Amino acid sequence: MNYPKLINVVSGGTKMRPIVCGILCLCVLASGIQAEAATWHLRAILNGKAELPANSSAGHGEANFTYDSDTHQLFYSLTYEGVAGVRADIHGPAEPYGERVISQFIDADPPSSGTITFSEEDARHLINGDDYIDVHSARYPDGEIRGQIFKQNN
Fold first, then answer.
1. pLDDT digit string (tens) for 45-74?
2. How many CB atoms lie within 10 A of CB 48?
3. If we measure between CA atoms, which residue out of 109, 54, 51, 121 comes closest to residue 84?
4. Distance in Å from the first CA to the final CA of the chain
5. What is the pLDDT of residues 105-125, one digit of tens each?
6. Which of 144, 127, 126 has the alpha carbon at shortest distance from 135?
7. Where are the domains of the chain?
8. Do 151 and 127 touch, CB atoms closer than 8 A?
9. Which of 26, 31, 81, 149 has the highest local Cβ count within 10 Å?
């Protein structure tokens, strides 16, 4: 058996050193690739001034969210006053990407709460602050109060 050559390769053989170092670096990087699950807390303050176009509604509200990246579940809690709401929606991504309804809440009567499953792409936009929530009414069918959804300090 020729152990001195093996020891020479590992301990400083000039031809094998870059290869061994490269393999070790790849192993270290690969061990950190697996993303850990995260829980994000988000919030939106809703009012008529935030609607597009802005309106003079005296209605106001608040929505709190918790997103779990492991389960892709978004828990929401919505409260508001001064609006005879007929539905509430989460829209996203907000400008400049255009907008689309991600989720329409069936129960818009306050307080309203529930869980929504998000795709990875929708979750990325949510966490980046691209989405908003609005409450529609008969008086303002395109939305009476609206609030941008932002991350809270986690």
1. 999 999 989 999 999 999 999 999 999 999
2. 20
3. 109
4. 58
5. 756 678 889 999 999 989 999
6. 144
7. 1-34, 39-151
8. yes
9. 149
